[in-house]
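Thread: DUF4492 domain-containing protein, structure

OP (GT): Posting the sequence first so everyone is looking at the same thing. Length is 78 residues per the record. Can we get the structure tokens written out before standup tomorrow? I want them in the notebook alongside the other entries.
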Amino acid sequence: MEKKQRPNIFKRIFNFYYQGFRDMPRYGVQLWILILLKLFIMFAILKIFFFPDILETQFDSDEEKSKFVIEQLTKPNK
């Protein structure tokens, strides 16, 4: 009697989510589109306008940037 081999774990996980999204009702798809749109706005658009690249504006070379980062990471808390 041969033992039937199951697909690997990654393929099973992928199939689980693929079937779930494929069988999702229309409102579920619309909600996922809304979620992805909000994530895009939060991480792409807001970063461009509200979070400037501080290291790029304050330092000229990569060496100066790396020294500043190391100092900030190793500085003891007061």
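GT: Both are above now. Quick notes for whoever picks this up: The longest helix spans residues 26-50. The chain has a mean pLDDT of 88.
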